[in-house]
Amino acid sequence: MPHLYVEYSANLAEFPERQLLTELNAAVCGHPTVVDPLDVKSRIAAVQQFAIGTTPGLNGFVHAHLHLLSGRTPEVKKELSDRIAEVLRRLTPQPAGMLVQLSVDVVDMDRGSYYKGRL
Amino acid sequence: MPHLYVEYSANLAEFPERQLLTELNAAVCGHPTVVDPLDVKSRIAAVQQFAIGTTPGLNGFVHAHLHLLSGRTPEVKKELSDRIAEVLRRLTPQPAGMLVQLSVDVVDMDRGSYYKGRL
Amino acid sequence: MPHLYVEYSANLAEFPERQLLTELNAAVCGHPTVVDPLDVKSRIAAVQQFAIGTTPGLNGFVHAHLHLLSGRTPEVKKELSDRIAEVLRRLTPQPAGMLVQLSVDVVDMDRGSYYKGRL
């Protein structure tokens, strides 16, 4: 069920999109609460139009959000967030002079109304 | 107020985007809790860069998320999820040999801070 | 920490993307609860494929969602929503004969599992 989204500011040139997705899926699937790896569906996209703060400056960001069915403990959510953050820190390029912000948000999905099926 | 988003993996060629939006809006607007059809705003987009699981394979997905003002009952949320799922199952193409995962997430929006206006 | 997203229907031609982001960031950063302006990261994108309601008509929308770490009071969330709405009302173009819906959703992010870092 986990749905993972990564967005990065388009000024982060040569962002390793494929490698990041591969390593993020490995990190998330490696957690003992994830039973079926195929449940993990990740996407990544560059954000073309963005603004950070209110003053000019060389700023970039990478933001990930992981959506899980409700019911995971706070500890599990923190562990998954940490795993994702570790991959972001390791693979995000840092252009010279740019301040790059990284963040990870873990979001509960309502288990009672969630639908899951396969064709 | 309902905001509906549909994302599908770009390997689902010839996805019937317009038809899906039309039928999803009809399905959601047909629910007795939706008073004004114009409230239902739906979007669809292909996801170009994605990863499913950790091993190579022919996999695809369609994921919908419906955002509603808080206060709907669990039953109403499940019914809306079911209506959306029915349309996804019916209209999603299935390329030969591909495992296509379908999912629907219903999300509460905070009624107290929600703003709604018209120009 | 605030993450702000703005989506607008692509039939709103000549949408002032840069100006909107600049003014939204100023509005959000001007709120006393926002300490570091660099925390405010905003994005904007046109939605190419959308459907509003169930009948043909000249309809458009602009939808913003602001994601904040959990713990802000309902009053603060309403104030931030109002600030964003004011900018949307002022800067959204209104093509002749089009009904343009505006909306703002304020979303809590789980503070316990949120990760924030910098490169």
From TrEMBL, chains A, B, C:
It holds the Pfam family CHMI. SUPFAM superfamilies: Tautomerase/MIF (SSF55331). Transmembrane segments: none annotated. InterPro entries: 5-COMe_2-OHmuconate_Isoase (IPR004220), Tautomerase/MIF_sf (IPR014347). This is 5-carboxymethyl-2-hydroxymuconate Delta-isomerase. The lineage of its organism: Bacteria, Pseudomonadati, Pseudomonadota, Betaproteobacteria, Burkholderiales.
